[in-house]
Structure formats: structure tokens, C-alpha cells
Write a structure and sequence with these properties.
135 residues, mainly alpha, flat, DUF962 domain-containing protein, transmembrane helix
């Protein structure tokens, strides 16, 4: 139980963040690039890994999954984990962070389905190189 309390201890996380991110420029960079990184990671996972369960086995209506664009994959599971974690850390701002997580998942799913595998990998390569230039 003590490990779980430590994982959800918001003050401990803020202290860790403050100790490692005291530089103003570093704080701004991290604030701006967390969500694009999450988006790009979900984009990569969508385009490289198959769905965990086929929607035909689940009996979903096609309109509910937007013709199969939204699917149960590892990106969705990670999105749910992060959303629950943020809500456990703080109710009000956690709900906002959870909405941002699901927005990234939905947006990356639609973009990956639209671009296709090859172009999605090129977009991810561009995003990754942009991250290294900001370091």
C-alpha cells in the first residue's frame, strides 16, 4: 500500500518536478512538448501495432468506432492508464489532463488512419528529430 500512496502523492511529484525542472526555459519546453510527444507516441503505436481485439468480436456498431478508426489497442490502454493516474493525482486538473489524453488518442487514431503506415512513420521521425533539436 505504501508504494501506491507514493505513486499517487502529488506533493512528492511536484517536489521531484521542482528539483529537476527549476530552469524557466526547461519548464516551458516541457509544458509545451508533453502533449505533442503523447500524440506522436500514440500515432506511432496505432500505425505499428495491430489492435488487441478485432471490433467484430466485440460486437461494436461501426458508427461507434467511426468505421474502425477507433480501436482497442495498446495506445488506448496507455491512454486509460494515464487518464486514471492524472485523475488520482488531482481531481480538477486531472480531469482536464485525462481529456487531453483522450483527445490525443482520438486525434492520433484519425490521423494515422488517414495518413497510412508509411507517412505516419515519416511524421513520427520528423517529430522525434524535432525533440532532439530542442534538447
Amino acid at each position: 500500500m505504501s508504494n501506491r500512496v507514493g505513486l499517487l502523492d502529488l506533493e512528492k511529484h511536484f517536489a521531484f518536478y521542482g528539483a529537476h525542472h527549476s530552469n524557466r526555459v526547461n519548464i516551458i519546453i516541457h509544458t509545451l512538448f508533453v502533449w505533442p510527444n503523447a500524440f506522436a507516441t500514440l500515432l506511432f503505436l496505432y500505425s505499428t501495432l495491430p489492435p488487441i481485439l478485432d471490433r467484430s468480436y466485440l460486437g461494436f456498431i461501426e458508427a461507434l468506432t467511426f468505421d474502425g478508426v477507433l480501436r482497442l489497442d495498446i495506445g488506448f490502454i496507455l491512454t486509460v492508464i494515464y487518464a486514471v493516474f492524472y485523475i488520482c493525482l488531482d481531481k480538477k486538473s486531472g480531469v482536464l489532463a485525462a481529456l487531453l489524453c483522450f483527445s490525443c488518442w482520438i486525434g492520433s487514431s484519425f490521423l494515422a488512419a488517414r495518413l497510412g503506415h508509411s507517412l505516419t512513420l515519416k511524421v513520427n521521425s520528423l517529430q522525434l528529430s524535432g525533440n532532439f533539436m530542442c534538447i
